[in-house]
Amino acid sequence: MTTATQTVIDQMGRHVVAPLSPQRIISLVPSQTELLFDLGLAGRIVGRTRFCLHPVKQVKNVAIIGGTKQFNFDRIDQLQPDLIIGNKEENYREGIERLATRYPVWVSDIFTLNDALAMIRQVGQLVGKGERAAALAAGIEAKFAQLPRLARPLRVGYFIWQNPYMAAGGQTFIHDMLTRCGFENVFAEMGNGRYPELTTEQIRVAQLDMILLSSEPFPFAEKHQQGFMAEFGLPVRLVDGEMFSWYGSRLLLAADYLARVG
Description:
Layout: E1 5-9, E2 15-19, E3 25-27, H1 30-38, E4 45-48, H2 56-59, E5 63-64, H3 73-79, E6 83-87, H4 93-100, E7 105-108, H5 113-126, H6 130-145, E8 154-161, E9 165-167, H7 173-180, E10 183-185, E11 197-198, H8 200-204, E12 210-214, H9 222-232, E13 236-239, H10 241-245, H11 251-261
Parallel strand pairs: 3-4, 3-6, 4-5, 6-7, 8-10, 8-12, 12-13
Antiparallel strand pairs: 1-2, 8-9, 9-11
């Protein structure tokens, strides 16, 4: 029997020929794995990365195919996927290209909330859950439209790493989230990458109102918060990195969280 197919264009502009109703899906991205579950596809998700942690109870039953930057190709072949979903930033080009020679691979490329909403709708159409995905995207959009605006944008630095200090720059999804909850991302225009390395002196002279320490990828904790406060004499907040950087269905929770942070 010939399987009915569809040709779609992913967010990288690539033409992807996939089954009309994919039944064996591998997700290479934590936030998109959670999205697939929330679209009602639990029975069709056969593989995920070890960083795909949500929804906690359900992902435990899904095979691990390595990390986001290091795929176990033999394990993927054993799972016989008919669709793989990845992301330009979170995965690695060589791995995606190798998989694409054997399987349909749909890749997202996300910088803003609008990109994320488009991804949700497109993935929904791809897996036969278009109406459910459209309703989810509309709900997220409505929640973000209700975010309160600060009278004056607070000047912040959002740190993702220590030793060396690294912060979220411009052209990142985190940057868009910071802007939407009323912050001015002071390190947006550093000019040395999307996640610039910073010296102690650069942080001191940045005239920050507040420092935000993310829970991921570096696991900033209270001891780091105390250290930053002592070093820079500024208010320092520990924040949930998933709420600033996960661009799937977790965005439904993110708007309320960001309103409290702001």
